[in-house]
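Just curious: can you write whichever protein you like plus the matching structure tokens?

***
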Amino acid sequence: MNTANATYLTRQKAQQVAQEEVVLNAAYINGDWVAIDSLTTDSDNKNSHALYDPNSGEIIATTRLCSSAHVESAVSAATQAYASWSHTDVSIRARYLSAIAESMEQQFDKLVGLSVLNNGKPIEEAKIDVGDAIACYRYYADLITDQATWSEVSTLESGIRLLKTYAPVGVCALITPWNFPMVTTAWKLAPALAAGCTVLLKPSEVTLLPELMLGNILSQIGLPQGVVNILPGAAEVGAAMTSHPLIDKVSFTGSNAVGEKVMSQAAKNVKDISLELGGKSAIVVCADADIDHACDLIIGGIFTNAGQICSATSRLIIHQSIAESLFETLKAKTTSLQIGDGFDTETQVGPLVSKQQLDQVKKYVDIAATEQLTCLTGGKIVDSAGYFATPTIYTDVPTTSQLWMEEVFGPVLVSTTFTEASEAIRLANDSKFALAATIVSADETVALEMALQIQAGHLWINEQQTVLPEAGWGGFKQSGIGRELGGDGLSAYQKSKHVLLTQ
């Protein structure tokens, strides 16, 4: 992979890319940028929409957002394109996916810079994100090429054959969040295109700068018109997409509150649906764990992306025998973390993405004070122009605490202790969410047995939260419906078909 060019990794250069290359005030429909105002009526909301630099709190760009009229136009384009795209040879679809990956790699530095500028991610985290997105497009290019058109299904009946094949699910509405721009887009878009679906994509209106670069890439590689349509919009656009009668599938990543609305809207026409929602994941540290390594895993699991991760291991469950020693090391490591501007290469923890998210974290810090939780370190909102909160750890947190039960989506860790493995498993499962978990133990057999009993869709044992494109992603309980990534991610955009014929 190309190494990011340092000349692009400055605020000034990123702002230049945003001004010169990102198309604002437009939607990408039917293979071209369409001015927002051209499909906006007098009754539509024409107020400008500001994009912010979370590092400074300053406005970096203004644009307009789409309305339901743009959804109608995009659905028409996607529906028309579906007839041919769904029957395009898989080798051709794979070439387009590879071309997207190649173009992203060529613009790697620009995409990193825009992510830091608009999302606030530290440079090293933004590099990982762009690399993950590229890997995802390449993975699905390979996966769809390897998938057999027909497979034989064994049957006990004599004199007949049973064959299985797959068809694309149809026109898809993809709605992505702001915490991992480009990444969650790739998780949805790559398998959808591989399967032969056409797409309406609504990226988060908070982080449009890196996401809108995709439209330029699709034009550069010559993707057929209407196959992908990008609609920068807010809730109105999402609702129009999820309730449209010509949309066959909805894939949404975001909060549970919005996910419930999406599910309700999609139910009207019995749409296929995938939901990746909230998490309150646990990290279990056993008595035999290496304390230094465990602390690194704890810090990576909660303070990466300033805690704005659905799988953040925000509940620490630690064996009582090593708790005192671990907390001493954890506090020292946490207080030494460099908080600051994402463009500063020394920064380890960047800002929250928005003032709204900062206020969310402050709300829970205030709740912790009301509940008289013991604060090991942090618990403060940084007095600065940007949206910064200190990495925060609370100890001896009761399971009745709001901070134990509710997703903060910020750099806030709650913890408790256990003495028996069964107690650790019970505590880990003590949540309405069940997305992910981490286990730290020197005994792999013990850790694997725990993994079987902990309710989670993805688990790490003695590892940071690396997410591979080959591994399915999704949870149980209220963490969502369905899976992304891996073979499951492709299946989410396909319907199986069976053909019975004479032997």
Residues 123-146 form the longest helix (24 residues). The chain has a mean pLDDT of 96. The CA atoms of residues 364 and 370 lie 10 Å apart. The two ends are 50 Å apart (CA to CA).
